[in-house]
Amino acid sequence: MDFNFTPDQLDLQKMVKDFVAKEITPHALEMDKEGVVPADLWRKLDEAGLLNLTVPEEYDGPGLEALSIALIYEELGKGCAGVATTTAANALASYPVVLLGSEEQKRKMFDVINDGKLAAFALTEPGAGSDAGAVATTAVKDGDDYILNGTKCFITNGGIAEIYVIFANTRKTAGIRGLTAFIVDRGTPGFSVGKEEEKMGIRASNTCELVLENVRIPATNRIGREGEGFKIAMKTLDAARPFVGAVSVGLAQAAFELAVKYSKERVQFDKPIASFQLVQAMLADMAMQIEAARLLVYKACWLKDQGVSYTKESAIAKCFAADTAMKVTTDAVQVLGGYGYSKEYPAEKYMRDAKIMQIYEGTNQIQRLVIANNILY
Ligand code: CAA
Q: 141 with 93, same domain?
């Protein structure tokens, strides 16, 4: 086993670390307060090449392997999980096209993303969350077109994306076997953005409802065959879940570093609180959990890069890292005490941001089901 990164990966990691320290961390509390990523930061993220990470080299992208992408999301997660989520949603939305897109679809999707614009992956609906196969949005064939009707909810980048991958049912009674993936452009008549969610955490990221009312799109926008949508969605989530793990690791690391620094500075009973063994035990547990989560994330990405099956490891990485982020950020608030609970310090933001890691891209209950299914069957 080789735990060393390549010189290219180390350069990339350093570049993103410096970018985050300069452009993201100093503005994270403000972005959290305002609930938006400023346009200027988008431009800089684009210029730094951080919006099109999954685009293959032959389509003018960086052609990065999963492990390198994970290193990038880890750094972004340290700076602001909301910004990291927004960029990671581009990766999520691009995977159905990476997996099964036609040449024309690849050009279309990758041109948009290469141009610094955002994409969104729209699977979830009011009645189809964990039960992804229960999608009620319909797609009815009409000549050379499809007509889509339905509502999507909790869609990351929903209100600000230029291009969407929308899952709809082409055979209403077929359940998961009717699910089909389509590309829909922003501005298509009948396609509109509904309410924006007012969220507890990752507030810099945009989360919206999408409404489709007789949205007519050409059949050439269908990704893969009719009924292939469920498997496309599952494979996409396999690929993207380790990146939720990577953001979680970065978030936990940031909270841990804050707790370590504070514990050395904060004096009680005439000593820095870091000298008390109960505090040390908390810091040691944080360090252990982060290290384990990081290795699980790297392992899942490494398996993907080897081209072998990694569904179970992807779910393990996401689940363990998200639980770690929740535990570590909660303990960081505890180490900071009253200051941890105050908005003066970023600890409470870290804790609010961590909660979604256990919920989106499949709840941690669903990850445990996926893991159990892969163990048992
Ligand atoms: N790869 C390939 N195929 C897969 C697969 C995978 N990882 N997982 C399942 N399948 C296939 C199965 O082999 C099976 O195929 P056959 O019938 O041909 O044998 C078929 O799909 C159905 O599989 P299951 O019986 O396991 O399906 P299920 O209905 O029991 O559901 C589930 C499985 C794991 C619960 C799934 O519904 C799931 O992952 N739910 C969570 C949904 C989710 O993650 N949503 C997140 C939305 S995106 C988001 O949050 C983004 C954001 O905003 C940031």
A: no
